[in-house]
Write a structure and sequence with these properties.
The structure holds two protein chains of two kinds. Chain A is α+β, with helices and mostly antiparallel strands. In chain A, 21% of the residues lie in helices and 40% in strands. The chains are: A alpha+beta, B alpha+beta.
């Protein structure tokens, strides 16, 4: 494989490229789902190919192929250069990259159990056992479960001497109960919604969830939601569970700090950002207790945004994004870092597959733990709604105004968790929201959640991102708008 | 386009399928072999910043063993890889409980011909896309505006074949141009796609987006509330697109459809009629489903009353209906869905809709739409890239973008006027044939900062 990668680089240079890098990726998936006691999906796939990115005539070109022959790779490299030269027709200035040392390295994320070596029958049986527990609860109309596993074996080689081999193994699973009654459909998920929890780990992650042990509880909660009180409308204190806070970080911090978005490169599809470069180091993003980092290093945890090197060969880093409430950093690439005068890329560039151009993606965008014990936070809260497990999410194209709803909520009255609330929702403006944060739970309650389905780019790429969070409290938040008449 | 030889022909894909069917020792075997080339030129800040091409191949094998089925996929075509993918599918199939719903594979079928492959699209070069983009960027520069967008072209072909003699094949091209024109405090957007690149006029789309940006300068903030609202075809598409799975037999069987308990009852206004029609001249896609069943034209909603659903073969058996050719590739838990929705249109122009509106909102584009309530079909999302206030029958200027929380069921009961149905392109849904609509009492719940 090294020979093909080097051939691609040499061909690109011979055709006139001033810079070239390649990603040879061998990607394997296993996806299993069950529904109402039967296997739904059962599939495996493998995909091997090469993506070649070049700068020629001062502009970018990219081509990819799964024809991994000498001729196929040479033709692909030549096409990448031809495309770059066509791009140069509409260039305003030459592409410039922030410097990065060359790296020669090999890395693999640690895991205990290779999910592809676990018999598929065992994996199906686990999902079906949880399915059975959910369907024992009267009123559950659909019981579902899913697992997905991904192994990416990738080689990065650049014309500046880098050669990096990385193997990334990720696992994820979840169970989901749905109940229809009257004129209402309610749903509960565990450990999280939209595919469950995913991390850069092996099958040991799935085993740690105790899906069967939690199945009856979420099924009962799902059915109980039909008779719960409707979320009120008005201004309230809210406490967010850690998975919901993880998605709040994703949408209202993770996306607006993408420097390609800030610089207008995503204007046509994903949109832009309110975080214009004049706000760096000046904007009070959140209250003093809000500290957020973008950390791709393994020491942050085995998140979906963890790696040793990004997909343009930059070593993993930790960038302070919000420091004691102040906006202090962006997610950057070599090109965007150079364009705002940064000395080095933040190392956040990744691609979904060999056939996609690497671009800025969230790594692990996490809020640092606070100091509160969860029980103390509830006891300290007089009148609030606790909201947990995301149900819907939406934010404007500059990432100011958001609205989220969650699967379930509970009243907090006089420092105690009270009756269940259905259809909880809240909305607000990003900076007002983060400045209203007055309590964050400690490391004991902090979870590195995985979002496996983040879409960005044209053609769109789906990427996994990580978000560490612990439950937190926010004051004077608008609730209930989603269901207002 | 260079590297053309990466794209396998239909005959070559058929030969690969035949080889796999001979290799397989499964009780039944199905092969879905596909190949494609896609190229995309992306621009922003009046310059090309991304220009990509990809050549892909997928060989997907479904094996049936003792009433169990599973799928394995590879992009390698050497004999060893083909043997391995068959073996993987068989191994996966063996290691699971028997599937009581699994039907024998379908035999040979007849398909209605559709012509959706245009050499003009397939032969588009990076230089041609770059020239069109350069022209748009120059237009924007001259008007001191900023352009961002994409111009893409591609082709794909696929063969579905099984061990009972079914062989179906399809090829199509696709082209798309999308442009956002930015001004310091406003923006405009336009998008079009077609299998035939000659039907796309990048300069005309850019002019339209530029006009929207210029017309919505210095947007005013007006209060949220319920407004008479004129929705562009793209905005309509992105809202009604959320209904598509509700028409699946499986969704009703699982009680996850908003039509559960509402079939045959008046749900929408008299002026709403919806078909699924893969053969409509403005539609695209193959004339068969994931199992090779020929697609049928289905009347889904007749003058406001949901009349029919679509069914995969297994769903049809469970629900005592006939398969309609809308099943997904097996195995899957979702069953089926109509993928070629066509709404009945009207004869009102957007100008007439505006002229007859005393106070209302004109929407160019919607964004980040998500489902809030699956049964009442309440959706939330934002307006974007050109939102206007209408006062006394004329557009009086741009307004800050709104968040909406709106039931689609209520919206389709409140349609006052319909324009001609067109092939619309949006962001949240696949392409459909939908009209612009004038809707009363559309619920904008909050306002953002721009």
């Amino acid at each position: 494989m090294h020979d093909l990668a080097n051939l691609a680089i040499e061909t690109a240079k011979r055709r006139g490229a001033s810079y070239a890098d390649v990603r040879l990726m061998d990607i394997r998936h296993r996806d299993i789902s069950t529904k109402n006691g039967e296997v739904g999906n059962l599939a495996e796939s493998e995909s091997l190919g090469i993506g070649i990115r070049v700068i020629a005539s001062g502009a970018w070109g990219f081509s990819s192929t799964d024809r991994l022959t000498k001729e196929g790779v040479q033709a692909c490299a030549a096409e990448a250069v031809a495309i770059a030269k066509a791009s140069a027709l509409a260039k305003r200035e030459n592409v410039a990259l922030a410097p990065e040392h060359s790296h020669v390295d090999t890395w693999q994320n640690p895991f205990l159990k290779d999910p592809f070596r676990i018999p598929v029958e065992q994996q199906i049986n686990l999902l079906l056992a949880a399915d059975k527990e959910m369907r024992r609860v009267k009123g559950v109309t659909v019981a579902e479960g899913s697992m997905s596993f991904r192994r990416i074996d990738q080689l990065f080689v650049s014309s500046t001497g880098s050669s990096i081999h990385q193997i990334k193994m990720s696992s994820g699973a979840g169970i989901f109960a749905t109940s229809f009654a009257g004129s209402e459909i309610q749903k509960r998920s565990y450990p999280s919604s939209f595919g469950g929890q995913h991390m850069l780990q092996g099958y040991e992650l799935v085993e740690s969830f105790d899906l069967v042990g939690n199945a009856q509880r979420i099924a009962e909660e799902c059915v109980a939601l039909h008779s719960a009180a409707q979320c009120p409308e008005g201004q309230k204190t809210i406490v967010l569970g850690s998975s919901q806070l993880g998605l709040q970080i994703h949408e209202s911090i993770g996306h607006p700090i993408e420097l390609d978005r800030v610089l207008g490169m995503e204007a046509n599809f994903a949109g832009m950002s309110f975080l214009t470069t004049d706000k760096l180091g000046k904007l009070k993003y959140g209250s003093d207790i809000v500290n957020v980092v973008a950390d791709a290093r393994l020491e942050h945890g085995p998140g979906l945004g963890t790696f040793a090197y990004d997909d343009e060969g930059v070593a993993a880093q930790c960038t302070p994004i919000i420091t004691n409430g102040l906006f202090t950093g962006y997610l950057s690439s070599r090109e965007t870092a150079a364009s705002i005068g940064e000395k080095r890329s933040g190392g956040t560039v990744r691609c979904e597959s060999w056939n996609r151009l690497p671009m800025i993606r969230m790594t692990n965008i996490s809020i640092n733990p606070g100091t509160w014990k969860y029980a103390d936070l509830i006891a300290d809260t007089d009148d609030a709604i606790l909201m947990d497990t995301n149900r819907s999410w939406s934010i404007d194209d500059k990432r100011y105004h958001f609205q989220f709803s969650t699967e379930i909520g509970w009243e907090i009255k006089g420092g105690k968790q009270g009756r269940m609330i259905k259809n909880p929702s809240y909305s607000g403006i990003t900076t007002e929201f983060w400045n209203s944060c007055d309590a964050i739970c400690s490391r004991d309650y902090w979870t590195l959640w995985g979002t496996p389905n983040c879409g960005k780019g044209q053609p769109q790429q789906v990427m996994g991102t990580g978000h560490g969070a612990s439950p937190a409290r926010f004051r004077n938040i608008k609730v209930g708008v989603a269901f207002a008449k | 386009m260079a590297n053309k030889n990466a794209q396998l022909s239909l005959e070559e894909l058929e030969r690969i399928a035949e080889k796999i069917l001979k290799l397989s020792a499964a009780d039944e075997t199905e092969v879905d072999a596909s190949a494609g080339t896609d190229a995309l030129t992306r621009f922003a800040n009046n310059t090309i910043h991304q220009n990509v091409a990809e050549h892909t191949l997928g060989i997907s094998v479904r094996a049936v063993m003792d009433g169990r089925t599973a799928r394995a996929t590879t992009n390698k075509t050497d004999d060893e890889s083909l043997r391995r993918v068959v073996e993987s599918a068989m191994t996966l199939a063996r290691n699971q409980p028997e599937n009581p719903d699994l039907l024998p594979m379908l035999g040979k079928q007849k398909y209605q011909k559709v012509s959706r492959f245009f050499s003009s699209t397939a032969e588009t070069t990076p230089e041609e896309r770059a020239k069109a983009v350069t022209r748009v960027c120059k237009m924007a520069n001259k008007a001191t505006q900023t352009a961002a967008g994409i111009f893409s072209s591609g082709e794909s072909r696929s063969v579905v074949a099984n061990s009972r003699g079914l062989v179906a094949h399809y090829e199509q091209t696709r082209a798309e141009f999308s442009v956002t024109i930015l001004e310091p405090n406003s923006s405009g957007w336009a998008k079009s796609n077609s299998p035939d690149i000659r039907k796309i006029d990048p300069a005309e789309l850019a002019e339209r987006a530029a006009g929207t940006a210029a017309g919505s300068r210095a947007p005013r903030e007006i209060p949220a509330g319920r407004y008479t609202t004129i929705l562009s075809p793209s905005a309509v598409l992105d809202l009604v697109g959320f209904l598509f799975y509700d028409f699946a037999g499986t969704a009703v069987l699982d009680k996850r459809s908003c039509f559960t308990g509402r079939l045959g009852k008046k749900v929408f206004g008299d002026n709403i009629t919806i078909w699924d029609d893969a053969y409509h001249p403005l539609q695209s896609g193959a004339p068969y489903d994931g199992e090779g069943v020929p697609r049928q034209k289905v009347l889904l909603v007749d003058r406001g009353i949901p009349k029919n659903l679509v069914y995969a073969r297994a769903t049809a058996k469970k629900m005592k209906a006939k398969p309609t050719g809308h099943g997904f590739s097996l195995p899957n838990e979702y069953g089926e869905a109509p993928m070629n929705l066509v709404f009945g249109g009207g004869d009102k122009s957007t100008d007439e809709m505006i002229r007859t509106t005393e106070r209302g909102i004109l929407v160019t584009r919607l964004w980040y739409i998500r489902e809030v309530d699956p049964y009442e079909k309440i959706l939330t999302g934002m307006t974007r890239d050109g939102t206007f206030l209408i006062e006394n029958g004329r557009v009086s200027g741009g307004v800050r973008n709104f968040r909406f929380n709106q039931s689609v069921i209520e919206m389709l009961s409140n349609v006052e006027m319909l324009g001609p149905a067109v092939r619309a392109a949006g962001e949240e849904s696949f392409e459909m044939v939908v009209p612009p609509m004038k809707v009363r009492n559309f619920h904008f719940s909050e306002v953002t900062k721009f």
